[in-house]
């Protein structure tokens, strides 16, 4: 199997030594669309942020192909947990990230927000003064067209609705020509209709560009509908990893099991309203 | 202290203290009961702490009033003198502002030659230069303009210096914790030097005049702006910084894209506010000889020319009000 990310024994401890990630091992193939399920605090966000080292893992390894970093065909593996800061930056360029709160620069135009996706490769001095080559500006407009927001390019980002802002964030990620997109609860602040719109957009562009996507969600039905593969986190461990069809009610109970509760809280099926 | 209503039956308190999840489950069961009989959680009691703080405050205030030798009797004794001074300054001498004589424009120069940059012969241009440098700033109008110029120049220099330092003095954008602490400590120390103290030092070093005053303003304003800027930077939304960092951006790019757009409105507001303050500060600096309207006011008072001094005070009041109004308008424009 072709490999994009190979995670082995990933651990993350916070302050007092509590492990939020306990020995996570998992592999991702190019072009996979993976949805990640789990309760708040199960370690989904931490896991995603360890993959581009916005959070430093405490232990374990994170192997990625050298070819992704330098554009060569090399299949030699590099361990991102031990990578140089240069290699880390090369990796981050190829990993787009999408957040629950969109994290756009509100006072900047939509186009400038999208262009900020090219910062990893842009000329340092020119980019500081918001000056980008014409080709990049055109690529940004093209990516805005792909997410259906070309008409809003010159508006300020905070004039857009939540669903539109999240699609701008997708366009920003696309500017990185990403091999991987990490999406941390991208639709948790959106209503069901907009959620579907955003996930449809994400799935479509990912298929077009062959991007590996890891999306954490807390709505079971969305995870089943969009995921080629579902991963369930519980208490810092992966307790399920398989096709959506293989996710039985029993498995769901295990994912949503929380210590201290006699039963799982209301089954997620009733929370899901889509 | 607000008296709290007596708590309902004591034993029910333990029920209210139970964890949220269990309390929630019990609600439906107790629904048939009337709401009054249920124990809702009460706000925590303040008790003696509030009284103690009040008492301490009263003591400190009493001690302060004693320390400043606060005495109503003296105030009443001084009242006739104040009234006398006030009477003698009325009516204010408007001619200091309006009378062309006061401006003592050299006869050789017309108004056009004086104001417009027209080519003049050697002697004439020297005359013009001397009038602008020495005569005009000693009129009420000229001194007022000089005060504004001092505030503008001083605030500008301070903004230029404080802008980059602000990023080094903010915890979340400083490249190293050592640098952060070193700068914070230095700036906090320098800020304790009031602007008129800096003015006295600078006047001793480079002589009387508006240049020393401007530098004093710039110095003090820099230390204040660094504090205000760095605090604004520390309050930004960290999510945007995370998002821009995640694209592989380098430090200056993260600052330019994720930090600057978030803090610019605050920065502009702070600079305008400091400009207002500096108009007043520039006047005080004038009193110690650093040019501007303060200098004129001081010499008028010393020579007991109360009507003239009163006119300067009126001009100053109008100026301050105008600047406050304009900067409020400007601030609303950018935010």
Task: Please tell me about this protein's structure.
The complex is a heterodimer of chains A (274) and B (335). Chain A has two domains: 1-94 and 179-274, Rossmann fold; 103-177, no CATH class. Chain A is built from eleven helices and ten strands. Chain A has helices spanning 44-51, 66-70, 85-93, 110-115, 124-128, 134-146, 162-174, 192-209, 220-226, 249-255, 268-271; strands spanning 5-14, 18-28, 33-37, 59-65, 77-79, 95-98, 180-184, 212-216, 229-234, 237-242. Residues 262-274 of chain A have low confidence and may be disordered. By secondary structure, chain B is an all-alpha fold. Chain B has helices spanning 12-16, 20-29, 48-67, 72-88, 95-98, 111-115, 122-135, 140-168, 177-191, 195-206, 210-234, 238-246, 251-287, 293-302, 306-334. The longest helix of chain B has 37 residues, at 251-287. Residues 1-30 of chain B have low confidence and may be disordered. At the A-B interface, helix 3, strand 6 and helix 5 of A face helix 12 and helix 13 of B.
